Prior knowledge:
The chain is an alpha/beta fold and about 160 residues long. It has 2 helices and 6 strands. Strand 3 and strand 4 form a beta hairpin.
Amino acid sequence: MRCHQVLIISLTLTIGGCAASATPVASPPIAALPMPVIYAPPQPPKPTVHEVTTSWYGNEFAGRPTTSGEPFNPRRLTAASITLPLGSVVKVENPKNGRSVRVRINDCGPFVLGSSLDLSLRAAQKIGITHQGVARVKITTVKTPPDADVDHCSR
């Protein structure tokens, strides 16, 4: 019985102590927990695909200096463009057969009305346009140098 009395007395004191304080005690403000910062790298912009007319040039220009200063080599995967900056890398796709190649722009050209891109012989062979000479292709810019001079070929 004694245990029971001690329990009742201690319970009364506990409850009475809370009820005895007539003035409300302000609780300290709850600090807002900072939201975790979730870092998501920005999504790269979707590459723009352009459809252009392309031609190719081969062995007759081998060894001649290109606009970039390097000698033209028809066995390299290079191209000439008036609109794309020197040093750019573009993917060229032949929509008729689905074949594609990546080329580096190292020259200005072509200077043929209606054509926007001049591929090296090897690049033209890779996408299967050497027999027709001129073809419609899709180009997608893969990489542009940070110091690219966009207007270099239009001067």
